[in-house]
Amino acid sequence: MYQSIIFEKTEGIAWIKLNRPAKLNAFTLEMQKEIHSALIKCKNDDEVRAIIITGEGRGFCSGQDLSSFGKSVNLGNYLREYYNPMIEEMASLEKPIIAAINGVAAGAGLSLALACDFRIICEDATLVNAFIHIGLVPDAGNMYYLPRLVGYAKALELAVLGEKITAHEALKSGLATKVVARDHWEEEVLQFANRLANLPTRAIGLIKKYMRESFESDLQTMLEYEARAQAEAGETDDHKEGVMAFLEKRSPKFSGK
Ligand code: LHQ
Prior knowledge:
By secondary structure, the chain is an alpha/beta fold. The protein folds into 2 domains: 5-197, 2-enoyl-CoA Hydratase, Chain A, domain 1 (Alpha-Beta Complex); 201-247, Orthogonal Bundle (Lyase 2-enoyl-coa Hydratase, Chain  A, domain 2).
């Protein structure tokens, strides 16, 4: 049983709901450990084909709980021990992860959203790279993902000025997959997750694994990675089903295998 998150599974979709609404779901050590544990459950459960990370109440996640931190903590070691393994787990998890940003995402809460594969943002939610306001630098993968998503200049601006940005600004700068009206929030998040959960999961996993390599690889290396990934995808039931459905002029029914 979890204390700081709610973990639920419904028809191919796992929900990880951060559950400290009074603190806008600020991270505590317990929450970190529970998110990590839930991600491992998702990895090992073949029924899970899409993961939604969202927040209870009016916030998504306000970053590290600033009231639960003693002065003597070495922040570098804390990151190495708790945040970094969670972010690495998300990157290596060969299933799509959606950040359903229901409210403010600040500091490491924004980093968590950046480490997801898709960001659906509620129209009245805001994002703030808040680290600078307390004299810190972006962490938990923020300095890796942000420039890749919005380009170097915009990433530097967001990190150094730490200004709040709206959902629509996030969409314009490439941070958001889509912006959703509050009235349709839950149904649109579910619809998007369902769509992902019904795609060929193994191909998505391979895309996640190899596309990330493109930033550090030359063309020749990427061509080889693509060949490797395609050899694997070509062996899946979903590839056979996709081709068969095309030839039979019907919609494919992918099993994720
Ligand atoms: C909070 C928090 C919070 C505790 C709202 N903690 N209570 C750092 C150190 C070590 C290693 C790892 O890495 C990190 C990474 C980081 O994440 S550093 C950045 C930490 N986060 C922040 O600096 C953001 C602090 N929060 C805010 O700036 C605002 O609360 C935002 C912009 C998120 C939301 O503003 P409002 O909508 O005006 O809400 P609020 O400020 O009134 O907050 C509501 C409550 O939540 C309030 O408690 P209260 O008892 O007064 O109702 C806040 O104190 C509490 N809260 N964030 N991070």
